[in-house]
Structure formats: structure tokens, C-alpha cells
Specification:
With about 1000 residues, the chain is mainly β. The chain has five domains: about 1-200, Jelly Rolls (Sandwich); about 210-280, Sandwich (Immunoglobulin-like); about 295-535 and about 570-585, TIM Barrel (Alpha-Beta Barrel); about 590-685, Sandwich (Immunoglobulin-like); about 705-990, Distorted Sandwich (Beta-galactosidase, Chain A, domain 5). It is built from ten helices and 61 strands. The strands form 14 sheets. The protein has a ten-stranded antiparallel sheet with strand order 44-50-51-52-53-61-58-57-55-56, with no helix packed on it. Helix 1 runs parallel beside helix 2 and helix 3 packs parallel to helix 4. The longest helix is centred in the middle third of the chain and has 15 residues, at about 395-410. The radius of gyration is 32 Å and the shape is globular. The mean pLDDT is about 95. Bound molecules: beta-D-galactopyranose (GAL). Beta-D-galactopyranose (GAL) binds near residues 423 and 569. Beta-D-galactopyranose (GAL) binds near residues 463, 502 and 569. This is Beta-galactosidase. Keywords: Glycosidase, Hydrolase. GO terms for molecular function: beta-galactosidase activity; carbohydrate binding. Belongs to the glycosyl hydrolase 2 family. InterPro entries: B-gal_small/dom_5, Bact_Beta-galactosidase, Beta-gal/glucu_dom_sf, Gal_mutarotase_sf_dom, Galactose-bd-like_sf, GH, GH-type_carb-bd, Glyco_hydro_2.
């Protein structure tokens, strides 16, 4: 056969020969065979290889074996190419609908058996649940058809091609095709047959498709069935045993809506499902039915009459070893984890997930925005010229995609909104998709963020709107224009519910300001919350040169174009570890609010519809973090949206310690997603008696000295600390630098940001410009008194006249060693600072410092705009666990509002540090790390940090906030750190 380039790859049409209309992904009792497993596989570098492999008699003995489902770039240790990560960029020339001749093409073959008893089947159907990006199918050498729409199901009628006994199926998969232009989502490009392949016997008299549309209204449920079956297949019976429903429709014309009494509604909080079957004599289909009515009333989005607030996440299908291959057990764990962290909604960014995920969402309870597999973001670079969303040539492709999306998943009660796709500009094809959905499903609204002006969608949706902008949208100022809208369009958008389909970009250490958005949602009913970007990092497990495993991101596979670590922006690390941001989110969106007032607490149930009968409330009192009393708190049942007052217990206030009362709301019984006792909401009340902070003792008799002396446990040479309690320790050294976070490294867009920012320049660049990462010191003076040492240092950077004067006073106070550091910046600093702190080095010795115990905020890191998950208490952690393993090393580990710190070596307490608040009551935080900020800043991956046994303690008078600038607003001015004078006072004693 002559070699020729495949004509298919440039074909805009979604394929030939797949069954239409698409239908639901159903659980049927008709026979089927999974064709998952080992397939023969051959990878060619171009699409021009001959097609003789599809022939019945082709001998594939020399071929490799590959598992299906899988992505070939994740198999074979690199033998089949490597993953490519891009966000917006197309990794091939923008030449639509063409793709390069260098088009990796995977040929797959396998044998399968058709049992003799399938000869009764009316039809045999071959279903592919996901193939990226374009594939052609042959059965026994007969070409069956082709399809694209990678994250969509495609079925083919193979009846006339199959035979009883042995058969062979051949599939050719092209990595690139015209479809790649509409699948430009921000994720790895991962070709292959990555979802299930199934052979299905369709009986005569079977049910082609079924849709049970349900409703709920004041205790009454309704079922409106749509049955797709031959007239001869009737009667069709609907059974919902738990509700006593057994309804027979004798003929198609009899199918009519049913009312059902005694129904409990479905909600994300109480996901009540009823087992149902729809059957004919030949086939029975099992469904799990949830009763709920979705409705937009004015500018409110309601389910069962109550406003929904989405505390959601954007969920991609991603796994460090399997890519987008679905693993049900892992997905279930992930969804349970979401529930544990108070997440109640999922946007399936940016394509339909494996169909089983929606079964899990129905069962565990999530509000789902189900998104179509459509993104043409790369056309933005061309000012959207030729955008498939607006070119009639692509209309059928767009429509085919939305039809397959809606039809496959239409039975799920969890899906409350259909989304047309993501970042595809705007245009007539999107409007046509929306019109099709409106006609097909009147029970769910249509979302698409790119419809800024609201021409064809039902919800006003935005991504990364700033806090002031979100407030402007929520408030009633109908005359102020919204982004990209005329005043009239703005007024139209304000008639709709508002959703942040993406906000709070969780890349690296961040984001800040969850609480500011949540406060707006509480204030303005039009605002319905949103979906954090995003649930988890997409790291791919790889091996570093030194053999250590690590999570790879863009560029790690030597891609020609890539977008670096922009794919690592989840609240969960690639290895399933929740980052502090997930804890912060959980605390901010907790569904129960406690407001203390004297001896009472008001308990407000912020849920959609569930009361508090599933919760129990506990209290405990701690003195300096040590528990002294606890008990149950009797709180009357609180209905959704209501509040109840309860009396607080008598709290024994300690005279010489801080006294804190903590209340937890916890699950009273185990659920499918968490054990009994799992805490969903917490609040703390400071009941401490006021205690004076020792005043600074004035010292007058300073005289110059050589600075070589001992003061209590401290030894100094030349005015510099050399030992504490006999172990080598140096410091304090001014530290103004932090290893820039991803947000710190992001250029400012110059919009609505603090006056310190420079458009197009990142904070980190400004810090490096000013030399914060390379400060040098000049000792100005060393002075003594009988029991004190004072040094004055001028700290500045090369080629800069800016400086910070640092005065360090060591003295013996009340028999203890005290260090007071006065930090005074010169005039002229222009930018925000990452931190104002002092650093101590504790080099390895016989017993390296490898852990900390502290009383302050914990247990996890906190920053000024991300403090809500922190509680005041006593905590301990190893030096390793004090840091978060962000995929790209960066600032981590800051524990705020420190009172007392003990540095430990194994079980030995090495040094105690007591922290005195400054005159304004502000308390410093601390970081204990194996690496300096400068070392961390140089590493692109954790394995590049190298081993170290030195510990670096930084005590920070202040830290800059986190913000969300990688994609969204900068640090809110209130949490931005301007250069300023600060005092740090520490009392240090031996362990
Ligand atoms: C959005 C986009 C997401 C992701 C995010 C940044 O614009 O919809 O897919 O790219 O930005 O991480």
C-alpha cells in the first residue's frame, strides 16, 4: 500500500460513522465485554505510515504491548515520546485545521472473542470512552469509522463486521488533528486510548436510551421519563422500589410524567438517591435517581427553592502516573477528601470526566458544573481570527461536542449547570451550542464564561475578578459598567446570578484572600461563590538524576514550547498531600459559624438545606495550649439559614497563661466520606487575662568595647554571637528576602494594584533589583555595659545607597538572656518587602536541630492574608514537616503569632525562645528550615535543594501577604508589607 499522509487529521468534521444521536452512559444488564487490557502497539513518528496493519491477517508479532487505557507518552519509559505541557500555546504551528507531518501516530491491535450466544443480539456496538485526539477503527479489516472529541464517548455499530469467535480490532490514533485546535486546555497533551473500550451486545427490544428527569417541590417528587426504544420494545416498566413506584408504560405514547410522594430531595449536602430500574422484556437499566429542581429566579440560582453557594473547585483528571486515565478508587478518595475540606461543588474543567465520576458525585454529594470538551484559547494570539467558535466550518464540531456532553451525562442529579467549554472566545457556534442545550434540557441553565456580555447564557460568570470588582458585580449599581460590557449589557448581566467559575489561583504558596471573597458572598445574594483554580497539581512522577522521585512540570521533558510550572496550581500536591491553602479554604467556607457574645455563642447554619442534626459540638479550654477542660456543647437543632444561641461553659481563666476556648462542630456519625468526629467547623475565643509585657530596661552606661564576652548562655566574639548554651549559633542577621512564591514571581498587570507595583514587573524582580537577596553588613559600633552588649549594623546591597540600620541589644533581664533588635529602614525604599526578620544559623553539630515545638498559630503555615486555618495552640513538627514540598521550591513554613518556641534535636530540647510582643501588641512569626531563602530561590525542583543538616531559624516581625497574582489580584494593600521600623524581642534560655 502506498505511503500517504492521513487525510483525516485535517478534517474539521468530528468523524465518520459514529452512532448518532449520542446516548447516556447507562448501567445495563445486557452483555458487554471490556476490551481494556494489553493491546499490540506500534508508534510511528508521522501519520504517513501505511494502513496495512488494519488487515485481518496482519501479523503483529514484532509489536510492543501497551495497556489500554493509557497514554503512550506515559508508557515505555520514554520510548513513545514524552508529555508536553502548554497552557495557551499550541505546541504546533497555528495553521488550522492542519497539523504538522510530525504527528505521533499510535497503531493499536487486539483480538477479542464474540461469544456464540451474542448471535441473538440485534446489534453489536463498540464504545470508546476517551481517545486523544483523532482515531480510526477497523474490525476484521473492515473500516468502521473515525472520531474526535477526546474526552467524549463515541460508539460504532460493528454488527456487520464482527463474527462469532475470534475477531481483531485495529485502531489508529493521531496525537494531533484538527480537533487539537479545539482542545487547547491548560494541561498536559497526553495522546492515546486513555479511557475504556467496551463491546456491547444490544438486544432486540432493548432500551437505546433513557432519561429520567426529576423534580422536587415541597415534599413531592416528579419523574418525567424519556424512553428511546422501538415501539416493539414496550411495555417499559419504571420501578423505584423504595418509593413504591412500579409503573408500566404499554406504548411510547403512554409515557407521561409521574408524581411521587414521600420523597426526600437530593442535595449536595444530603445526596439522597433512590435505586430505580427501567426495563423491557429484553433489557433492564439501573439508575440512581435524585429528586431536585434547578431554577434561576431573578438573580438567584436555586435548587429546591434554596439559594446555592458554590464552595467549589475546578477538577481536572490528572494523576502523577496515569495522567487522565481514570482510577475509581483514587477518584473516590479525592472526592471524599474534597468533602472533608468543606468543598461542595466541582466544575469539571474543562471537559467531561470519566462517566463514573458523576456516579460518585451523585452519591457523595456535589453540585456539578459539567463542562464540554472545548477550548480554543490559542486563537487569542491571532486576535481570535479564525476562531472555531465563530467559524461556520466548525459549527458541526461544536454542536457534536455539546450533544455528546449533555447526552452522556444527562441523568445525573449532581449536574446542575451545563458549561459550553472554556476560553474559546465568543461566537455563533457557542450561541448555537447554547440554543441546542436550551432546547434539549429545560431543567438546567447554561454557563460559559466567555459570554461576557450575556448574549446566550444564563449565568454571569467571570474568572479571577478582583475583590472590588466582585463587589461591584454583587452590588446593585446598575449604572456602573462591568468588564467588556456596555452599561446596557451590564444591566442585563446584573439580572443574572453571578459565579466565579475560577478564582483564587492556588499556585505554589497561596492564594490569599479566600475570606474576602467569602465575605462578599455572604453580603450579596447575587454572588453564588465559585470554583477555586484548582483542585490538584498536575505533576508527573519522574526520576531526578540522583535517582530521587520528583513531580515534573512543563520543560522537564524538554518540550519545544511549554509553560513551566503553571500546571502546578492545585490545593493538593501531586502526591495527594493537602497544601495549607486547602486547610485555609476549609476554614473560610466552614458551614457553621460561631459568633461569641459574652457568655453565649450564636451558632449559624450556613448550609443550603441541611440542618445540624448530623453534627455534635464540643468545647475545650487550653492554658498556653495545654488542655485543662472539655465537654459537649448543647446546641439546639439549627435549620439551614438559621441561628441559635447557646450558653458557653464556665471557663477557668489562668492568671499566668493564655486561656483559649475552642469549639468544634464535628460529624456525629460516620459518613461515606469521613469518620465520626471529623471536624467541619472550628472557632476560638481568647479568654486570657491581660498580662503586662516587661518594659525595656533603660541602659545608659554604654561604652565602646571589643564585643568579646559572655552573657548568660551567650558567647560573643567581636560583637557577634558565636555560641548559645555551648552550641555554635550565629545571628541575628537581617533577612528581608523570601524565596519568591509563584505569585511573587508574577509580573504585575498594573491594574488595581498597590502603588508599589510596576506594570510588567514582578515583586521578586523588584526585590532582586534592590538586592534584598544579597544584603551585606557593615558593623558601625560595638558597645558594652556590665550586663549588656550593643551592636549597630548598616545593612545594604551592592550599588545601592538604600540601607537598613539594625541595632541588636543583648542583655540579661530577670536572669534570662534577652535580645532586642531594632530594625530601621532608610528613606527611599520603593517596593513592598517580602519580610522583616532576623536569621540565626544553627549549624550541624553532634545533635542537629531537627524540630520545633511552639505555642502560637498552627499547626500549618500562615501568612497575613491566609490566617483563618491557623488556631492558637501548642504544636510540634520536624524541620522537614515545617516546610511544604511545593513543586517549585519557594517561601514556605511561616508560623505566625509566635509566643514560645523550643528548638529540638530528637527528643532533646535545645533552646527555648520566648517572644515578647511589640508595643502595638504585634507578635512575630518564625520559620525553621534546612535551607536559606537564597538557596531555596535557586532551586527549580525540591531535589535540587540538596541535603543539609544546618537549621536556619528566621524570626519575622512581619511577612508580606500571598495574593493570587499568578492569575488574579495582587496582595490586598492591607496585607502588603511596606518597609517600616520594627522591633523584635526574644528571651532565650537553655533547653
Ligand atoms: C484560566 C483557565 C484555566 C487555567 C487558569 C490558570 O484562565 O481557564 O484553564 O489556565 O487560567 O491556571
Amino acid at each position: 500500500m502506498p505511503s500517504q499522509l492521513s487525510p483525516h487529521v485535517s478534517d474539521i468534521a468530528p468523524g465518520r460513522g459514529a452512532l448518532r444521536p449520542a446516548r447516556s452512559w447507562l448501567h445495563s444488564d445486557t452483555p458487554s465485554r471490556s476490551l481494556n487490557g494489553a493491546w499490540r502497539f506500534r508508534l510511528s513518528p508521522t501519520a504517513s505510515v501505511t494502513e496495512d496493519f488494519a488487515a485481518d491477517g496482519f501479523v503483529d508479532d514484532g509489536w510492543d504491548s501497551i495497556p489500554v487505557p493509557s497514554h503512550w507518552v506515559l508508557e515505555g519509559d520514554g520510548a513513545y515520546g514524552r508529555p508536553i505541557y502548554t497552557n495557551i500555546q499550541f505546541p504546533f504551528p497555528i495553521d488550522p485545521p492542519h497539523v504538522p507531518d510530525e504527528n505521533p501516530t499510535g497503531d493499536y491491535r487486539r483480538h477479542f472473542d464474540v461469544p456464540a450466544d451474542w448471535s441473538d443480539a440485534e446489534r453489536v456496538v463498540l464504545r470508546f470512552d476517551g481517545v486523544e485526539s483523532l482515531f480510526r477503527v477497523w474490525v476484521n479489516g473492515v473500516e468502521i469509522g473515525s472520531a474526535s472529541g477526546s474526552r467524549l464517548a463515541h460508539e460504532f455499530d460493528v454488527t456487520s463486521a464482527v463474527r462469532t469467535g475470534d475477531n481483531v480490532v485495529a485502531v489508529r490514533v493521531h496525537q494531533w488533528s484538527a480537533a487539537s485546535y479545539v482542545e487547547d486546555q491548560d494541561q498536559w497533551w497526553l495522546p492515546g486510548i486513555f479511557r475504556d473500550v467496551t463491546l456491547i451486545a444490544r438486544p432486540a427490544g432493548g432500551i437505546e436510551d433513557v432519561w429520567l428527569r426529576t423534580g422536587f417541590d415541597h415534599g413531592r417528587g416528579s419523574v418525567e421519563a424519556e424512553i428511546t426504544a422501538d415501539a416493539a420494545a414496550f411495555p417499559v416498566t419504571l420501578c423505584i422500589p423504595e418509593l413504591g413506584v412500579e409503573h408500566v408504560w404499554a406504548a411510547p405514547a403512554d409515557v407521561a410524567p409521574l408524581d411521587v410522594t414521600g420523597v426526600e430531595p437530593w442535595s449536595a449536602e444530603r445526596p439522597r438517591l433512590y435505586d430505580a430500574t427501567v426495563s423491557t422484556a429484553a433489557e433492564s437499566i439501573a439508575l440512581r435517581v435524585g429528586f431536585r429542581t434547578v431554577e434561576i429566579r431573578g438573580d438567584q440560582f436555586l435548587v429546591n427553592g434554596s439559594r446555592v453557594v458554590f464552595h467549589g473547585v475546578n477538577r481536572h483528571e490528572t494523576h502523577p502516573e496515569r495522567g487522565r486515565v481514570f482510577d475509581e478508587e483514587h477518584a473516590r478518595e479525592d472526592l471524599a477528601r474534597m468533602k472533608q475540606f468543606n468543598i461542595n461543588a466541582i466544575r469539571t474543567s474543562h471537559y467531561p470526566p470519566h462517566p463514573r465520576l458523576l456516579d460518585l458525585a451523585d452519591e457523595l454529594g456535589f453540585w456539578v458544573v459539567l463542562e464540554c470538551d472545548l477550548e480554543t484559547h490559542g486563537f487569542e494570539k491571532l486576535d481570535w481570527v479564525g476562531n472555531p467558535s465563530d467559524d461556520p466550518a466548525w459549527r458541526e464540531t461544536c454542536l457534536d461536542r455539546i450533544r455528546r456532553t449533555v447526552e452522556r451525562d444527562k441523568n445525573h442529579p449532581s449536574i446542575v449547570i451545563w458549561s459550553l467549554g472554556n476560553e474559546s472566545g465568543t461566537g455563533g457556534n457557542l450561541a448555537a451550542m447554547s440554543a441546542w442545550v436550551h432546547a434539549r434540557d429545560t431543567g438546567r441553565p447554561v454557563h460559559y464564561e466567555g459570554d461576557y456580555t450575556g448574549e446566550y447564557t444564563d449565568i454571569y460568570s467571570r474568572m479571577y475578578a478582583s475583590v472590588p470588582e466582585t463587589e461591584q458585580i454583587g452590588s446593585d449599581g446598575t449604572r456602573s459598567a462591568l468588564l467588556n460590557c456596555t452599561p446596557a449589557q451590564s444591566a442585563r448581566q446584573r439580572t443574572k446570578p453571578f459565579l466565579l467559575c475560577e478564582y483564587a489561583h492556588a499556585m505554589g504558596n497561596g492564594p490569599g484572600a479566600f475570606d474576602q471573597y467569602e465575605a462578599l458572598v455572604r453580603q450579596y445574594p447575587r454572588l453564588h461563590g465559585g470554583f477555586v483554580w484548582e483542585w490538584r497539581d498536575h505533576g508527573i512522577l519522574a526520576t531526578a538524576p540522583d535517582g530521587k522521585p520528583y513531580y515534573a512540570y512543563g520543560g522537564d521533558f524538554e518540550e519545544v514550547v511549554h509553560d513551566g510550572n503553571f500546571v502546578m496550581d492545585g490545593m493538593l500536591l501531586s502526591n495527594d498531600v493537602p497544601t495549607p491553602s486547602l486547610h485555609e479554604f476549609k476554614a473560610v467556607v466552614q458551614p457553621v459559624e460561631f459568633v461569641f457574645d459574652g457568655e453565649k455563642v450564636a451558632v449559624t447554619n450556613l448550609r443550603h438545606s441541611a440542618d445540624t442534626s448530623d453534627l455534635r459540638f464540643r468545647w475545650r479550654v487550653e492554658h498556653d495550649g495545654i488542655p485543662v477542660a472539655s465537654g459537649d456543647l448543647e446546641i439546639p437543632l439549627v435549620a439551614a439559614g438559621e441561628s441559635q444561641w447557646a450558653s458557653l461553659p464556665q471557663v477557668a481563666v489562668a492568671p499566668d497563661a493564655e486561656t483559649w476556648l475552642t469549639i468544634d462542630a464535628a460529624l456525629a456519625a460516620p459518613t461515606s466520606w469521613a469518620p465520626e468526629g471529623h471536624v467541619i467547623a472550628t472557632a476560638q475565643l481568647d479568654c486570657s487575662a491581660r498580662r503586662p509585657v516587661p518594659a525595656v530596661r533603660p541602659q545608659a552606661d554604654w561604652r565602646p568595647g571589643d564585643g568579646t564576652l559572655s552573657l548568660g548562655i551567650a558567647e560573643f566574639t567581636g560583637g557577634s554571637l558565636v555560641r548559645l548554651a555551648g552550641r555554635p549559633v550565629t545571628g541575628p542577621r537581617l533577612e528581608l528576602f523570601r524565596a519568591p512564591t509563584d505569585n511573587d514571581e508574577s509580573p504585575s498587570d498594573g491594574v488595581e494594584e498597590s502603588d508599589d507595583s510596576v506594570a510588567g514587573v514582578s515583586s521578586a524582580d523588584l526585590w532582586r533589583r534592590d538586592g534584598l537577596d544579597r544584603l551585606t553588613t557593615r558593623r558601625v559600633s560595638v558597645e558594652h555595659t556590665a550586663d549588656a552588649l550593643r551592636t549597630l549594623d548598616k545593612v545594604s546591597a551592592a550599588n545601592s545607597a538604600l540601607c537598613v540600620m539594625v541595632e541588636s541589644i543583648w542583655s540579661i533581664e530577670d536572669g534570662e538572656l534577652e535580645l532586642r533588635v531594632e530594625i530601621e529602614p532608610s528613606r527611599g525604599w520603593q517596593t513592598v518587602w517580602p519580610r522583616i526578620g532576623v536569621r540565626f544559623e544553627l549549624p550541624d553539630g553532634t545533635a542537629p536541630v531537627d524540630g520545633a515545638q511552639w505555642f502560637g498559630l498552627g499547626p500549618l503555615e500562615t501568612y497575613p492574608d491566609s490566617l483563618r486555618a491557623g488556631r492558637t495552640g501548642r504544636f510540634s513538627a520536624t524541620v522537614h514537616d515545617l516546610s511544604v514540598d511545593y513543586a517549585r521550591p519557594q517561601e514556605t513554613g511561616h508560623r505566625s503569632e509566635l509566643r514560645r518556641l523550643t528548638l529540638t534535636s530528637g527528643s532533646t530540647e535545645v533552646l527555648h525562645v520566648e517572644v515578647l510582643p511589640d508595643t502595638r501588641g504585634r507578635r512575630p512569626g518564625f520559620t525553621l528550615s534546612r535551607h536559606t531563602p537564597q538557596q531555596i530561590a535557586r532551586a527549580a525542583h525540591p531535589f535540587e535543594l540538596g541535603d543539609s543538616t544546618t537549621s536556619h531559624l528566621i524570626v519575622d516581625a512581619a511577612q508580606h501577604g500571598l495574593g493570587s497574582r499568578t492569575c488574579g489580584p495582587d496582595v490586598w494593600p492591607e496585607f502588603a508589607l511596606r518597609p517600616e521600623s520594627r522591633t523584635i524581642r526574644l528571651r532565650i534560655s537553655e533547653g
